[in-house]
Amino acid sequence: MLSRSDIGPAYARNAAPFLHGPEIEAMTAALMAGQYGHHTETEQFEAELAAFLGVPDVVAVSRCTAALHLALLAAGIGRGDDVVVPAQTFCATVHAIRAVGAVPRFADVDPHTQCVTADTVAAAITDDTRAVLPVHYGGRAVDLRALAPELAEHRITVVEDAAHAFGSRHRDGRLVGTTGALTCFSFGPIKTITSIEGGAIVPRDRREAERLRTLRLLGIRAKQAERIRSTDYLVDGTGLPYHLSAVHAAVGRVQLRHHHIVAERRVTLWRAYARALVDIDNVELIDVDIDYTIPFNAVVRVPDRDVVFARMKEAGIGVGVHYPPNHTQPAFRRWTRHRPLPATEATASELLSLPFHPAMTEHDVTTVTSTLTAILS
Ligand SMILES: Cc1ncc(COP(=O)(O)O)c(C=O)c1O
Fold it and tell me: Which residues carry the post-translational modification N6-(pyridoxal phosphate)lysine, per the record (predicted)?
């Protein structure tokens, strides 16, 4: 078996999202063992995720979109309910709300972090609000503690979209996923750790964990090991095929073991961007609270974003946009009781995601920022 010191340098150089020998070996071993679907490998990944976070249980699923859908179902959110959510998120967050028949109620964001705040969430709550779905944009932990008494009084559930925030901490030191909310992670291809595709939910208690396990496996109750031994299984509720395959779980397990290497690299790169961008006029780096965060991306606000985007592409720099806001998307407009979202609307057309992945070097960061400087001047 490879030791950490054998693998470490490879991760530091190439790092996730690219897969290395150890992941390929783990996938091969799962395939050779005939583990194609949900299997004991999945259950081991769940136990290791729970140990990493320091929580009693974690339920692995096929994607974060599935995690969000199941979390809302498990919390009893459905038709006629309002769910408060930022318009500034990936459309998957809003699709999960629509999938349970609830109505997205868009909240504004802080323009400097692109995250909701206790104030913007409070302003969006209605008498029909049954859940609040904050998104830890860029990996930054959203702190809604100021709202906790109001949420508790009105029995409003908090479901966290932590697709970007695996390994990030709140300012009191607690890891995202350990503060008592139903928390959903993504292990998609460009996430801090990847299982190629995958996700996980941190349930609030044992009953909820059981319900989520049944929901994610077509309503079937029983562990894989028990199913193999038995001639029967029990379908005692609704459910969807949202389980995580053993092959994906095998990749996730290897990635989890190297999380610290990739995390350090992401923090180093983000800090390099912060240093390089500080002197460029009219460019603001979206703040991720770097002392507590494992950053998912490096996003700037720039003037004439579409022109800068095109010029950066022409220069061979792989920029992107996270995200075109959802409240104006045709798919969601009709479900939205629209309200003004001044910060979202003022900043959405300025957002530009700079290249950000752990395989980059600090020299790459300098290339990106000097190209941006040249274009802006
Ligand atoms: C904020 C956010 N939520 C949800 C998702 C959906 O995650 P998945 O691709 O694992 O379904 C993503 C994916 O990138 C995301 O960025």
Answer: 191
